[in-house]
Amino acid sequence: MLKVDYEELYRQISEIFNLQKGCVFMCEVDKHANLLEFTYPPKLIKNKVPIDNKTIVGRAVIAKRSYISNNVEKESNFAVLNCLMAMGAAPVQKMITYPILSGDKVRAVLQVARRGKTLSESPDFQKDDLGKIKSILDDLLSLHIVKSAWGE
Predict the structure, then answer these.
(1) Domain residue spans in the chain?
(2) Which string of DSSP letters, residue by residue, matches 60-123?
(3) Distance in angstroms (rounded) separating the CA atoms of residues 4 and 100
(4) Which of 119, 129, 136, 147 has fewest C-beta within 10 Å?
(5) Structure pTM?
(6) How far apart are CA 68 and CA 98, in angstroms?
């Protein structure tokens, strides 16, 4: 299990991206490496997701890379988990899915969402936002992220 202060992670991510409530999620890879278990927010703890190519989080684990979707509704390659969609007042419109690596293994996946009634309500995520996430994670995690999650 990762040693992370989830409230501080939530605070920093929300502040840097100007997010509303219900926009930061964390899943950890289980001990058998076939499921992701939610560890944040508390309402989702005990929810599990299979590691497969059907969801964005599963694909991030398999491919060991981040994904940026600035039009979640039109995302045909992956399913966005219904539990994430239901966590806020407005639907998820945009999302970063960011795997947290230790060596060559994915330990967890962070998802950062932007919500709104329409796609144009919030700015798009950019590639440099991945660096902002990495910086926050490097500061907060007790393990050192030794490999870039976006392969650079």
Answers:
(1) 6-140
(2) HHHHT--EEES-GGG--SSBPPHHHHTTSSS-EEEEEEEEEEETTEEEEEEEEEEE-SSGGGSP
(3) 12
(4) 147
(5) 0.85
(6) 9
Which residue type is seen at 128? D
pLDDT tens digits along 20-35: 888 999 999 998 889 9
Residue pLDDT, tens place only, 100-138: 998 889 999 999 999 888 888 889 999 999 999 999 998
For 10, 72, 149, the CA distances from 66, given in Å and listed in that order, are 19, 15, 6
Predicted pLDDT of residue 110:
96
Closest CA to 85 of 76, 95, 98, 77: 95
Backbone φ and ψ for 82, nearest 5 degrees, come out as -60, -35
Read off the tokens for 89: 């007042």
Total residues found in the chain within this entry: 152
Separation of alpha carbons 128 and 18, rounded Å: 16
The CATH code of the domain at 6-140 is 3.30.450.40
Backbone φ, ψ for residue 87 (5° rounding): -80, -5
Contact by Cβ (8 Å): 65, 81: no
